[in-house]
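Bit of a strange request maybe. I'm writing a small parser for structure token strings and I need a real example to test against, not something I typed by hand. Could someone generate the tokens for this chain?
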Amino acid sequence: MSHHLARLEAETGTKLIQRAGRGIRLTDAGRLLAERAAEVIGRLDAAENELAAYTGLRAGRLRLAAFPSALGTIVPAAAAMLRGHQESVDLRLTEAEPPEALRMLRAGYVDVALVFRYSADPPGTGEQSDEDGIDVSEGLREQLLLEEPVHLVTSAHDPEQAPADLAAYARCRWIAGCDRCRAHLLKQCALAGFTPKIAFTTDDYVAVQALVAADLGVSTLPALCLRAARHPGVRTVPLPGAHRYVFAVRYGDPPDPPAVKLLMDVLRAVVVPPQRLGAHGSEDAAPAEAARVDVAGPAG
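Reply from user aminoacidic:
Good idea to test on real output. This should exercise your parser:
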């Protein structure tokens, strides 16, 4: 091993390791090289899997990364439909927030990534170009699956129905979510004319609802979070003009391997009402109208 590292250092002209006590550790240059090596290996693995799929060797293996509320709603329905269409498909699931899911996609560790953002426009355009650091210009192909409302979440102990007005809660304590959700909350509150007093931060939508139900603050949550798990002690009302957009993303040029195409088909099918299936044109075309979802039951 030391011989190979010495040869790498000679070839790169950079010190890659340094002694630390009785052992060794990577230098910053060494860590950078290790990260790139992992990415290269991942892409080679992805290339091997794609070739194997086309030759029929591993056509049933699929890897999907998705954020938690999608794993609790969209993904199980899609997995069940996928198994109904093709029992031989081996679907592997990984929970990952959008930035990590896209890194895994680029590195070849997953075939499809489900991600979200609070703008329908691709990153790099419009006002929210830097929202996630998600760049769809470097070989990524995204398909808008659905548009969902963002809800104001308040305690069911409140004597009155929650108004769909953030400004009415300017003096309340707030519960914020992940970095992207927190940024969206701050933007919406700024538009309402105030800066929220954030008392708690958690990306667990079950915990958010429990904190709200305990009268510890108010929050906002997208519809999928409320569909995945709904606390009986909260009230919700959709906020006018506030939406979250869910995309299925692939990496590389079309056409997709047959198994990936099938996965895309079932993902679209589970978020689009049956009577609207087929209205979106070809597989890679942007849908004429994104599916809209809301939480079932009364708002209170």
